[in-house]
């Protein structure tokens, strides 16, 4: 996510800048930093290299944050806070250097600082970890030995695991459910047709971005740095409601646009209200089961657990969700939404949906640095719910936003989740997430036996075309609702609109079925083991992998044409196997 790169760039730049602004030069501040963190000694060489490159030229900080710059940035900020440098002065240093180094325009630099400053300064003054240990958390790299607090394992009930049973295909005439999956709408109410789609801000296609550079922003959206205009969402909802009959809707989060430097709590709540109004208007009689995205908060990614109960509390958002979602959810589900943004609902006899708040595994949620052990007891609650479902013979689908096993989900949280999935693999018959914008999946394996496939999460394609995609949505065919339904996904179909064609023709987008998973890949079933075998084939079958690569980008021509060479393929397939902590080794 670009906002993390921006903020770390600011931290690193400000660290070097603060050295230059201290009386007596860098040696003065170094002597004060060192007692706070011996790790600083190990990064002096890197700092010298940074200073050698210093000079108000067009220096850009790489988005892949190194351990050295991360450690140095955290150390310096903590030291300045401990030395009681006024927060406004620290912020002014960071803002000016951000602008001088052309990291981002001033409005973005200032907005990011204003948004993240209270959270960041609070966390840095309360965190129990060293800078290197913190950098393990936020970068996913091995910058230090993991401290004990980052290794936790939840106990599973002392109940024998029932044997996993084969799931045969249902009878040809068995009932089916059709389920709509919407994810990552990123609705931009300020999108402007004809605006600059290649601006210097993280989000473009707005009036303030000035005259177009090259081709202007299209009428129906743009797959450069632009989010979903109102008319695109209206057109898509209208098409679906007129052409699809769905039994229920999965809505897996990320409603606001990517202007993270310019967002307030009031704006986030307005977007929640507007998008909910669209769903109610176009699908008035269809149940909707939502999940919470990382962009719903202000600032983005900020989801403090309940032990943060002062002015930084997230209660403002959870209360709004409880009020908004109560039209679809029963009272017992609304109670846990108010508590932690997660819930369970019984949809049909023998079938439940569990919606997780995966912001509690988000490594950009810096509140977790204070205490990351099962925030708000969500995973312990999940275990209790799954055990209850197993006891009654119910089957469960899990929905969420950030998929466990991804690089954005804390490793220890994912590892606990994998253990839970392995224990209850016969109860969990489907998992559905979003976040990555691509059309993809994650495959899960038993931590005690990595050859054994235990689960699969389908990642719904994004509605937003932001950064290289066509807009899309997905329809699942589910085995149910009848006695002894398996509740497994029998097929999924991805629908897209070609934005280039729509914008060039002047006509509304034509939504069409891009592919059926069963037909495109020749699968008899879509069980986890079937997808695992397919990924194995993709390692060597170029034609098969290219097909997957095209669907991954929702057939956006420019992105597909970039291609994916051997290291890229190896890395992508590693990520699909939900082993993100190992994938950096194959890049």
TrEMBL record:
Localisation per UniProt entry: Secreted
Signal peptide region: 1-18
Secreted among keywords: yes
CDD domains noted in UniProt: MPP_ASMase
Cofactor remark: Binds 2 Zn(2+) ions per subunit.
Molecular-function GO term, any one: metal ion binding
Enzyme Commission numbers on file: 3.1.4.12
Domain Saposin B-type: 63-147
Keyword Glycoprotein carried by entry: yes
Chief location bin: secreted
Binding residues for Zn(2+) 1: 184, 186, 254, 437
Gene Ontology annotations for the cellular component aspect, listed alphabetically: extracellular space; membrane
Reaction(s) catalysed by this chain's protein: a sphingomyelin + H2O = phosphocholine + an N-acylsphing-4-enine + H(+)
Top-level taxon in the UniProt lineage: Eukaryota
Disulfide topology: 67-143, 70-135, 98-109, 199-204, 205-226, 361-409, 564-568
InterPro entries the UniProt entry points to: ASM_C (IPR045473), ASMase/PPN1_MPP (IPR041805), Calcineurin-like_PHP (IPR004843), Metallo-depent_PP-like (IPR029052), Saposin-like (IPR011001), SaposinB_dom (IPR008139), Sphingomy_PDE (IPR011160)
One record GO biological process: ceramide biosynthetic process
The protein's required cofactors: Zn(2+)
Function description: Converts sphingomyelin to ceramide.
Similarity field: Belongs to the acid sphingomyelinase family.
Name used for this protein in its record: Sphingomyelin phosphodiesterase
